[in-house]
Amino acid sequence: MKRRLLLLFCALDHLLLALFTLGNCKPYEQISSALWGLESDGKLMGKLFRPVVDFCLSWLEKDHCRKCWSIEQRQIIIMGSMK
After folding, report:
1. Model's pTM, two decimal places?
2. Are 73 and 62 in contact (CB under 8 A)?
3. HEC per residue, 58-69
4. Is the Cα dihedral 70, 63, 58, 34 positive or negative?
5. pLDDT for the residue 60
6. Based on the number of CB atoms within 10 Å of its own CB, is 35 exposed (0-12), middle (13-18) or buried (19 or more)?
7. Helix (H), strand (E) at residue 22
């Protein structure tokens, strides 16, 4: 049951990001990792919203957005090596 809920939340996260960006996002990207990337690129949206998301999810883990971005980067490397 816990795994199913996690999968549903991840799917909702992907859908919301696609809607917010009007489809201008990577297929595997989540809101948290996108915000970390935006902040790293010096974009205003990342600077404003990344701290908010990290604060809201601080009960779950420290540096949530950075960790999501790191996981995403590892997945890119794995997927790239499978081609």
Report:
1. 0.82
2. no
3. CCCCCCHHHHHH
4. negative
5. 85
6. buried
7. none
